[in-house]
Specification:
The protein is α/β, with parallel strands linked by helices. It contains ten helices and 17 strands. The two termini are about 30 Å apart. It binds iron/sulfur cluster.
């Protein structure tokens, strides 16, 4: 898929004191991207939909001052961010409600400080291994060519005795990572889904086959690999289509001898997310009917609608069976 090129880039003056700042500006200029020297992003369109669309083409280069990392269970011990938001428009995105009306992207350029915070958490937990997720509020692959942050991060973890990195993406631009000294300390996961879900709800992401090609390259480069199958949805033909997904994946990974992890996440939504989704995607075909769902208390202090118990058990059993029958060395890490 083509690289994401923002319509406009804001430069927080703070980044000019970091070596990466100058490089980024040169790169943006070479791409003819208009630059505004301000940390105040102005997006003021007539409708919320226009604000959303414009935000998804706007990037602010700034710094990340987060010193206290939060837990990222069940995926990793902690999460940190090299960027926030992403250029895709997934209709079900769980960030719909957390990133406000204008989810413009931020890319953080104070890598030394970010890595210092990470190191302090690794040190505190010695001699145990500490794992970190860097994709919980962003898609780091989609934005990588604008900063080179992730490459540096993967090399840092490659040299770390007790730190491990995990990331997940729906994008296929993985060539910059193939020759890095990762030492198997970074796990690359790809989010996959059935044809129906990708084609109808994951706008501006890499296609299923582009992602599969990227998986093959990353596996060949020796990285540990995994898949997040999410959000799993029930619709007409869902069983046939998820079967097709795992059949295709099996063929693509023929000859791959390593372990493959799977994380399974059923579709869920909150009341607030539903309101935003129907406003942003007026003709959405997402099934947001509360009557077919049950409420579950979420870790962020909000109720969410998940599938009813019998449906979610059926989903978990069916998908787990498909995985176990297709992959000898599969590990299903969780279903939620
Ligand atoms: S790629 Fe991920 S973060 Fe970006 S819109 Fe889709 S679900 Fe949200």
């Amino acid at each position: 898929m083509k690289l994401f090129i923002p319509d406009i880039a804001y430069i927080d003056p703070k980044i000019l004191k970091y070596p990466a700042g100058e490089k980024v500006i040169e790169y943006l200029e070479s791409l003819n991207i208009p630059i505004v020297n301000s940390k105040k992003v102005v997006i003021d369109c007539e409708t919320p939909e226009e604000n959303y669309a414009m935000a998804k083409k706007t990037v602010l280069f700034t710094t990340n001052g987060q010193k206290k990392l939060v837990s990222c269970r069940p995926s990793a011990d902690y999460q940190f961010s090299l960027s926030s938001s992403c250029p895709a428009n997934c209709e079900y995105c769980y960030l719909q409600t957390t990133q406000g009306e204008k989810p413009f992207m931020k890319i953080f350029l104070n890598m030394d400080e970010i890595l210092e915070v990470i190191q302090s958490y690794i040190d505190k937990n010695m001699p145990n291994i500490t794992s970190f997720e860097c994709a919980s509020i962003t898609d780091p692959i989609a934005l990588e060519h604008l900063s080179g942050n992730l490459k540096r991060c993967i090399e840092y973890f490659g040299e770390s005795s007790n730190g491990r990195l995990r990331l997940v993406t729906k994008f296929d631009d993985v060539d910059p990572f193939l020759k890095l000294k990762h030492n198997k300390h970074t796990k690359f996961r790809f989010t996959l889904n059935s044809r129906y879900v990708i084609n109808n709800f994951e706008h501006n992401t890499s296609s299923f086959y582009e992602r599969i090609e990227a998986v093959k390259k990353i596996a060949c480069a020796g990285y540990p690999i995994g898949f997040i199958i999410a959000p799993i949805m029930i619709y007409d033909n869902w069983k046939e289509e998820y079967k097709e997904l795992f059949d295709t994946l099996k063929i693509a990974l023929q000859g791959y001898k390593g372990e493959i992890s799977f994380e399974l996440i059923q579709h869920r939504f909150t009341k607030a997310a539903k309101e935003l989704i129907v406003q942003r995607f007026k003709n959405t075909a997402l099934n947001l009917n509360e009557e077919n769902r049950q409420l579950k208390w979420g870790p962020y202090g909000k109720f969410k609608y998940v599938y009813k118990k019998l449906d979610s058990e059926d989903m978990n059993n069916y998908i787990s069976k498909l995985i176990n029958s297709n992959f000898n060395r599969a590990i299903i890490e969780y279903f939620t």
